[in-house]
Backbone:
């Protein structure tokens, strides 16, 4: 089973999201997606991960990390982060 990370970057206070990439994901993706996002992220607001999640075909999962700001999801609770990723890999690598 192959896994990959899909990232949305932000520059100049505007989210950079390439729509044709979304269309590719919607029509060509067969890999599982795990979206991890910080609840208190002010750089990439939560609505953006919600839109990404909705645009992605199944199988998919989302984890909004409580109290995490931008790029802090791991550091808020490293054990929970590692456990969540391991569970996801275990679930979809069968």
Residues:
């Amino acid at each position: 089973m192959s896994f990959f990370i899909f990232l949305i970057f932000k520059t100049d206070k505007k989210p950079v999201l390439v729509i044709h990439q979304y269309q590719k994901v919607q029509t060509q993706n067969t890999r599982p997606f795990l979206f991890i996002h910080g609840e208190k992220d002010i750089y990439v607001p939560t609505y953006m991960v919600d839109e990404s999640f909705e645009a992605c075909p199944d199988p998919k999962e989302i984890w909004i990390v409580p109290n995490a700001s931008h790029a802090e999801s791991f550091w808020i609770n490293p054990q929970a982060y590692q456990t969540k990723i391991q569970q996801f890999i275990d679930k979809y690598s069968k």
The first strand starts at residue 9 and ends at 11.
